[in-house]
Structure formats: C-alpha cells, structure tokens
Specification:
The chain is an all-alpha fold. It is built from six helices and no strands.
Length: 272
C-alpha cells in the first residue's frame, strides 16, 4: 500500500507541478508580451530544470560539493518566479473580469446620460405646456378662445416633440436591458469573491476592498501551489529511491578462518 501511495504521490506532484508551470509560463509570457514565444520556451526549460534539480539535490546531497548551495538557491528563486507567474496569470484574469464589468457600467452610464437629457427636454416641453395653460387661465374670458387658437400650432408641435422624446426614452431603456442582464451575469461570476471580501472586511466595506480580497486568495494559492509540488516530488523520489535500494538482492560474503599449528608452518629464515 505504501508503495502505491509513493507512486501516486509522485504522479500527483508531477501533475500539480505541470499545472503550476502552465499558469506560470502564461503569466510570465503575459508580463513580457514583447517576447511571448521566447518567454514560453525559457520558462518551460526553467520549470523542468527546477523539478529535476530539486530531486537531484535530495538524492545526491552527500555527493555534491559546495555547488549544491547554489543549486538550492536557484530552486528557491525559481519557485518564487513560478509564484510570480501564477500571480500575474490570475491577476490578469481578475483584471479582465473587472474591465468587462466596468465596460458594462460605462455603456449604461452613457445611456443614462442620454435618458437624462431626453427627460430634461421632456420636462421643458411640459413646463412650456404648463406656461401656455397658465396664459389661458389668467387671460380674460373673452380672449381665451383667441389665445387658444393661436396656441394650437405650438401645442401640436410640442405634442409631436413629446411623442418623439418618449419614444427615444423607451428605446434607450430597451437598449439598457441587455447590458443590465450582462452585468448581472458578470456580478454572479464574481459573487464568491464578494463573500470572501465580506468575511475579511465586513459587509459594508467589502465593496471597497474587493481587489484586496482577490489578492489574498491569489497569495494563498501561490504559496501552496508550487511549493507543494516541489516538496512532494522531492519526498516521493527519495522514498522510491530508498525502496529500490532496499529491494536490491544482498550479496552475502562467507569468510572462513583456517587455523594452522605453528609446528606445521614452514620455517622462514628471517635473516634473508
């Protein structure tokens, strides 16, 4: 059972390391977008070399000279670089999500401004109608029919403008509905991180510190992701190598001691 767990842990460590390397490589390539393919090739070689070096150091530590300390520092720095790449990848994903939500908000704010402008025009027309009504109401009774006839053309024009403005407002509100639906879907996607922010900062302050909550989650991931893969790989390779060494057939040496009496030994002339 332990042998099975050792091999399972080995494959698990390689899988975790591969996923971490994938995120890290894409993250670093995004940071150095000017040399995208070159960064991918370089980071792929470094990620593979990091795992091989970590396992090699664990198995051959006693046989290496002072250069092993450089190799240890190189593995530690590469683990830090991997974490930075993962941070860049996840941060980019969070920024893209935020930008999508901001773009929806921007488009809706533009529509809202247009609606407000149309409503202001509508309010001015209503005020104008109220002014015309006030002129009739304050005029002398014998003049009201005359004033009403003189206002008919203007009132028709105002009514026509009101219909146009109401149609424009309805159309703008219809244009706003798909954006509101998309924004609700986007808010549903970031809903879990809102709960994390509420747990850390409280319900009232969670909106302000939403980005900070995202960073804390990313920190938790990067400090577990690559170190877990490297340490698990080192541990499993060491256990597997030790088990292979223990399972080697042992050579038993049989030694025999033959005692010969002194009188049976040939005499040797010590003077020669």
């Amino acid at each position: 059972m332990l042998k099975f767990l050792n091999w399972l842990a080995l494959f698990t460590s390689i899988g975790i390391a591969g996923i971490a390397a994938y995120f890290s490589i894409l993250g670093m390539a995004t940071i150095f977008a000017g040399a995208y393919m070159g960064t991918i090739v370089m980071m792929s070689a470094l990620e593979f070399g990091k795992l091989v070096t970590a396992a090699f150091l664990h198995l051959a530590w006693e046989k290496l000279n002072y250069m092993k300390y450089y190799l240890v520092s190189a593995v530690a720095i590469l683990m830090l670089i991997t974490s930075l790449g993962i941070f860049g990848y996840l941060s980019k994903a969070n920024i893209e999500t935020t930008l999508v939500g901001d773009s929806y908000s921007l488009e809706m704010s533009i529509i809202d401004k247009r609606i407000e402008s149309k409503e202001s025009q509508l309010q001015r027309l209503e005020d104008r109608v109220a002014g015309l009504d006030n002129i009739i109401n304050t005029a002398r009774p014998q003049d009201r029919n005359y004033i009403d006839r003189r206002q008919q053309d203007e009132r028709k024009e105002i009514a026509n403008d009101v219909d146009i403005l109401i149609g424009d407002i309805v159309k703008l509100n219809e244009d706003k509905l798909p954006l509101q639906r998309l924004q609700l879907e986007q808010e549903a996607e970031i809903g879990p991180i809102k709960y994390v922010a509420e747990v850390i900062y409280g319900e009232e302050e969670s909106v302000k510190y939403l980005d900070n909550a995202v960073r804390w989650v990313i920190y938790a991931l990067i400090f577990v992701f690559d170190p877990l893969a490297v340490l698990l790989l080192v541990s499993t390779t060491g256990l597997i190598a030790r088990r292979v060494e223990q399972e080697k057939p042992k050579v038993v040496e049989n030694r025999y001691v033959i005692q010969v009496p002194k009188n049976k030994l040939p005499k040797v002339d010590k003077t020669k």
